[in-house]
Amino acid sequence: MATETTDAVAGACVDAGGSALGMPQLCADWMPNQIFWLVVTLIAIFFVMSRIALPRIGAVLAERSGTITNDIAAAEELKNKAAEAEAAYDQALLDARAEAQKIVADAKAEIQAELDVELQKADAEIAAKATESEAAIAEIREGAKKSVTAVAKDTAKELVAAMGGSADAKTITAEINARMKG
Amino acid sequence: MRAKHVAEEKAEGGLVFHPLDQFIVKPIFGDGPVHWYTPTNVTLWMGLSLLAIVAIFVLGSRGRAIIPTRLQSIGELIYGFIYKMVEDVTGKDGVKYFPYIMTLFLFILFANYLALIPTSYSATSMIAVTAVLGFGVFIVVTILGFVLNGPAFLGLFWMKDAPAILRPIIAVIEVISYFVRPVSHSIRLAGNIMAGHAVIKVFAGFAALTVVSPVAILGITAIYGLEVLVAGIQAYVFTILTCVYLKDALHPAH
Q1: FRET label pair with A109: which of A14, A128, B68, B95, CA 20 to 30 Å apart?
Q2: What confidence tens digit (pLDDT) does each residue in A145-157 have?
Q3: What is the pLDDT of residue A94?
Q4: Closest residue by Cα to residue B203 from B7, B24, B14, B19
Q5: Which residue of B has its CA nearest to A63?
Q6: Measured between alpha carbons, how far is A16 from B138 in angstroms, rounded to an integer?
């Protein structure tokens, strides 16, 4: 086998039957051919890639990431706008609520003021009426007292007369007045 | 002549093992000698790799679509994968070498995968091919290291943070490992691809025996699955090592 290998490297590398002698990898006769075509292929791949494919794919990738970035920025902007709108809406709602509360308070105060005025008026009226009534009652009481005194005097006079006594008017009046006070 | 030879071997016994015949370089046209310029099966399969690369990367990206087609997606995935690898390993200033590394990766990847087609020729199993790639990377990286850094490139071998006594020893080891790089770089690729294909052929030889043929065919299937992995992994390993070597040239300080 060893001699065969040396033969192969030195010679045609292939035996009469078309089988490899030794390792075809080590056949020096074929190496220039492989190296030449390798270099040709590598140069061809390099030119195709560096001139056409890589710039194109790089541009597509850059464009895509640009588009994505723009879209994200646009989405962010829209989100901010939505947040702004929401804030404005909330503010409007708060304002409206405050306004409503103010209106309610105003109305309450107005009603209260009116009520106070009316109450005072009513109080005054009631007080006036009460004074009037008291005066009337006092008058009536006075009147009644007088009447009672008069009746008592007359009755006393009559009683004294009936009992046969005689009494002057002055004494009886003084007596009645003293009794009425007690 | 050839037919007679095969007939003789058949007569000798059922088993015919020629696991290395698949690597023979043959002219496409005629039967003449193989000169350096002769179009051979090497030419054919390297050309097919080129065509496949053109199909995916040029025709696939023809639409320049923002929402990519399937073919364009494949191209973009590979582009992104290698671009990120170059950027991660070599840094921002290594990105300008991206087209070269992409070329290497694509050639190895497509040559490896096309070689998995039955009766195809595996260009990356030839030591001459991988040696050109490996030594090419080595020479370019070494020249680049000296051009970019001047004598400071030698700092790659001089560990400043090692103890003073160890530094010369480490330097010797570093120099040896530096010069072994292209050898291991190229033999790793050729060895992996060649071994896998030869093993498949050996299993295929056993398949001629009726008794063991089910086992042999299962073996072929299993090894083929392994080879699909190996084809991708070896292209990746070659490329990432190239990036690592390039990083050494760009930033020789450890």
Answers
A1: A128
A2: 888 888 888 888 8
A3: 95
A4: B19
A5: B66
A6: 39
When scoring A9, A43, A54 by the number of chain B Cβ atoms within 10 A, the one with the most, hence best to mutate, is A54
Q: Where are the domains of chain A?
A: 2-145
Q: What is the pLDDT of residue A12?
A: 66
Q: Looking at the DSSP assignment, which residues form a beta bridge with residue A14?
A: A20
Report the alpha-carbon distance of residue A66 to residue A41 in Å, rounded: 35
Tens digit of each residue's pLDDT (9 = 90 or more) over B164-216: 888 889 999 999 999 999 999 999 999 999 999 999 998 988 888 888 889 99
Least reliable range by pLDDT among A83-87, A170-174, B151-155: A170-174
Token reading at A82:
């939505």
**Hey, where are the domains in chain B?**
37-250
Residues 6+ apart with CB under 8 A from A15: A21
Please state, as a whole number, how many other Cβ atoms lie within 10 Å of the Cβ of residue B64.
12
Nearest to B248 by CA among B130, B131, B108, B149: B149
ipTM score: 0.87
A2 Cα to chain B: minimum distance (Å): 16
Q: Which residue has the tokens 């023809």?
A: B62
* Crossing angle for the helix pair A54-162 and B70-90, to the nearest 10 degrees: 90
CB contact under 8 A, A35 and B129: yes
